[in-house]
Amino acid sequence: MNNRLIGTERESSLHRSLKFQYSGKEGITETISGTYICDARSDEGELIEVQTGSFGPLKEKVKSLCRKGKVRIIHPIAVQKHIELYDSEGGLVHRRKSPRKGSTWDLFKALLYAPEIPSLKNLTIELVLIDLVEKRINDGKGSWRRRGISIVDRIQEAGHGSVILKNQKDYLQFIPFKKSEQFTVRDLCKKAGINNNLARKALYVLEKMNLVERTGKQGNAIIYMPYQKKVV
Fold this sequence. Notes:
Layout: H1 13-23, E1 28-33, E2 36-41, E3 47-50, H2 59-66, E4 71-86, E5 92-97, H3 107-111, E6 123-137, E7 150-165, H4 185-192, H5 196-208, E8 212-218, E9 221-226
Parallel strand pairs: 3-4, 4-6
Antiparallel strand pairs: 1-2, 2-3, 4-5, 6-7, 8-9
Helix pairs in contact: 4-5
């Protein structure tokens, strides 16, 4: 069996390009570590996992890999997305800009079912900010929400740098309040410019990471404040 091809049949162009980008010239892709197959191993020996969706499925894998050495999760975030729709014969029907713009706060959607991951020793999470092209085809086989239209590929169109998160201190950028300042979900929405749903997810993860704590309630609103003990 060719281990380099395991799990690559349905791999998107985005996933594949990031995998090769972060493996480097001397690194390798689809490498085996113990019982796991990793997306890549960099020139310096760091294991690379490209994760475009939830980190939930990675929980046990990353815990195991981090016990052996350095691991980096590459998480692309689409700052801007264009959607291209093709007909069943492959002809381009139209290209449009998605109204939704991503930000680094989208990380907390991915961490919702794995809030313990950022605290793992030897782990780096790198948020790669990109312009994305999502290719769709009207083949009648896709989600009913998209009226049968299938997503067939995702392609990185441009890059806008990255944000590297190595330790708990790096996550303090997501707490835009003074150490003694109390705040609610609504306050975070205003400060960060995010919606209520995303603010709740962020606070859930940050609380699990011991970076914020609950101090009481104001009516039905929970009051938070930055965790008072020293963050390392």
